[in-house]
Here is the input.
Amino acid sequence: MQRSVSAHIDATVDLGTTVVFSIAAAPGPAFASEVIDFRVNGEPVEPQEITDAHGTRLHQFDVPAARFTAVYEAVVDGRAPAAPVEPVDLIRYLRPSRYCESDTLMPTALGEFRGLFGRDLLEAVSSWVGAELSYVPGSSQPTDGAVQTLLLRKGVCRDYAHLVIALLRALDVPARLVSVYAPGLYPMDFHAVAEAFVEGAWHVVDATTLAPRQSLLRIATGRDAADTAFLTNHGGNLVLDRLEVSAVVDALPADDLTQLVQLG
Here is the structure.
C-alpha cells in the first residue's frame, strides 16, 4: 500500500501569536518522501518540532501580525506496526474528558449495549451511532461534546467519534480519538475516528463509514479533539483563509465492517 497525502493551509493573524500545527503524519510506516514548509509573508521559517508520547508531531513557531502558510506533503509506503499498548493509556482513556462525557452517558450505554463485549460491542456501538446521527457539515459547534451531539442527532466526524468514545468508555473499554488522512473520504478533509482497546490491541472505529479504515494514516492521538486539532494559536485572532487536504492510495481497499482493523 502506498499513500500520498498533503495539506495546504493559509491563515492571517492580527497580532503577534504562537501557532502550533498538527498536520504531519505520525512515525511508523516508511516515508518515501516528506515535505514540511512553513512561511510567514512568503519567507521560510524553521518551526520547533515537538513529539508527544503517541508520536504526534507538533510544529510550533511565532508569527507577527501577518499572513502565513503551511504546506505538508508525504508519500508513505506500507503500513505502520501495531500501536504500542502502554499501561497508563488504559487508565487515561477510560476517564471522561472535555468532549467525551462518558460518566453522563453511562445510563445510555448500559441501556443500549449491556452484555456485549469485544468486537461485538465495537460493531454494535459503531452501527448504533451511525444510525442515530445524521452527517451534516456545519451542524455542530467546535465546543460540542458527545452529550450535545446525541441531543442534536447530527454532526461531523469529530462528533461521531466523540460519541463512540464516550459510550465505549462508559462500558469500561479504553477509547481515544485519532486525527487521520483518509483516502477515499468525500468531501476530502482531515478526518477523525475513534480507536478502542479490545482483544489486546487498539482498533479503529469509524461510525461515519466514509472511508475504508485500512487506508487511514495517523496524524494525532489523544483524549478527544482538544488534543488533536490541526491548528491552534495563542495570542492574536486567527483567520483561516485556505484549507486544502488530499489523501490518495494506490488501491482503495474494501472495508468489511465486521472485522477488527488496526491503524496502519
In short: The CA atoms of residues 54 and 221 lie 6 Å apart. The first helix runs from residue 89 to 92. The chain has a mean pLDDT of 95. The longest strand covers residues 2-13.
